[in-house]
Amino acid sequence: LGGPDPLDYVSMYRNLGNPSLNVPEHWHYVSFGLSDLYGDNRVHEFTGTDGPSGFGFELTFRLKRETGESAPPTWPAELMQGLARYVFQSENTFCSGDHVSWHSPLDNSESRIQHMLLTEDPQMQPVQTPFGVVTFLQIVGVCTEELHAAQQWNGQGILELLRTVPVAGGPWLITDMRRGETIFEIDPHLQQERVDKGIETDGSNLSGVSAKCAWDDLSRPPEDDEDSRSICIGSQPRRLSGKDTEQIRETLRRGLEINSKPVLPPINAQRQNGLNHDRAPSRKDSLESESSAAIIPHELIRTRQLESVHLKFNQESGALIPLCLRGRLLHGRHFTYKSITGDTAITFVSTGVEGAFATEEHPYAAHGPWLQILLTEEFVERMLEDLEDLNSPEEFKLPKEYSWPEKKLKVSILPDAVFDNPLH
């Protein structure tokens, strides 16, 4: 319909809840526009009735109704527009169990509810429309401690805990912006008996994040312009082929299901539009332009073994490295950082992951701007000891550097400005 906002509209309903299930009265918000509303290619490419409609989902949100409130607050609509803008710009889709690091009270107040988890709406089942299938993903507001627990363990596990605590969401996961305590403060046993045990047993189901990151190939001199080093440092980031982009997207998705296998898709996987996988259909990625493969010279997309690498992360991304090592690699899995400022990706893999192009013989390998790093269990344990201070961000001073000379690996934690202004 034109205008600056990606969503056509957001419907707001007064939901009376369900007293017998201990579900309080609340406001129920539903977005319109992430799915295909028109079927005429105006906003979304029409792919048929059997596939996803548009991005394949709409967002919902349940906000506890305050006493005397006669009309729904409008800020959740702005929140939905912000999430939808991210989806339209990045063409990354959301799935149940995903989390969104927001770092600000959702309603711009002083609330502790500053992040989001996503889950299936308890009342709204997937619907078949003339333009494809639409599922409904509910936004659930959470505190920082709950977000961190979801990252360290898995989103579905934390959602289940929230359902058991009435003031923290209850069975329909209703967000109360006035909630002043985390579920772990309300019930201290939840952290030790459920989350810590879950992390130890299951590891983390977080298989990757969008992040501020970069990498350098230290085996080549900086003046070698033909090398794709420092991919996101520079005015013209090199582009990934559609095939590689899809594989990175799939890598990010893998591991989010409890029973998923630690397998990377093969490097020669055929590119498909509307890729089907074990979680949700994917739209054609924004990097997968029809000419994207053609603009990359062959020598830039061959797999290269590297002798020495330098990894760069901002503080938030760096804080997830222990999670990557302890929760993923020690459980035989992989973890991917996908740059939000360029076309770079960094995937850590353990020796048990199949389909990786990094091997024990050549632990550092790159395919264009996608770097894979294979770490043995012994080296992971050593890195966890050396990186222990990443768990104490309040004592952190940037920039911070870690180095393992005999492994020819260096990791730097840098200020955000380095990634926001890559030419500086």
From TrEMBL:
GO terms for biological process: negative regulation of smoothened signaling pathway; negative regulation of transcription by RNA polymerase II; signal transduction. The keyword Cytoplasm applies. Residues 3-179 form the Suppressor of fused-like domain. It holds the Pfam family SUFU_C. Keywords: Acetylation, Cytoplasm, Developmental protein, Isopeptide bond, Nucleus, Phosphoprotein, Ubl conjugation. Residues 217-245, 263-290 are annotated as: Disordered. Its main location: cytoplasm. Residues 193-413 form the Suppressor of fused C-terminal domain. InterPro entries: SUFU-like_domain, SUFU_C, SUFU_C_sf, SUFU_N, Suppressor_of_fused, Suppressor_of_fused_euk. Signal peptide: none annotated. It comes from the Eukaryota. It is found in: Cytoplasm; Nucleus. GO terms for cellular component: cilium; cytosol; nucleus. Belongs to the SUFU family. PANTHER family: SUPPRESSOR OF FUSED (PTHR10928), SUPPRESSOR OF FUSED HOMOLOG (PTHR10928:SF2). This is Suppressor of fused homolog. The lineage of its organism: Eukaryota, Metazoa, Chordata, Craniata, Vertebrata.
